[in-house]
Hints:
Elements: H1 8-12, H2 19-22, H3 33-64, E1 67-68, E2 74-75, H4 80-108
Antiparallel strand pairs: 1-2
Helix pairs in contact: 3-4
Amino acid sequence: MGRPWSNSRAKRDQPIGSIRLAGNLFSQGDTSPIAAHRGMNILIKVGYLAIALGLCALLLFQWLGSAIDEHGYLKEPFALVPVGTSLLMGGILAVAIGLFKRRLRYSSAD
């Protein structure tokens, strides 16, 4: 029979969680429903993470506040506003796209 690791059929028949297939789950040729479902979950999870980070940045901007120093300059963490807003909008967009694609996939399966 020879070496089982040199046989392409042996690689294909291994369970999904095996070490050899771990790097190939999201390859371009993989169209299995498991890989597509995991891809959508990742998009939605990244979207939720971006929303949480965006809200944290905006809340941190409010919490730190602003002050005027003795020379009349305004001191505030203004960079948190565009970063927080961008993360919030990007997260909302990612979650919306992920949920829309999930709905399309399940509605076309019927």
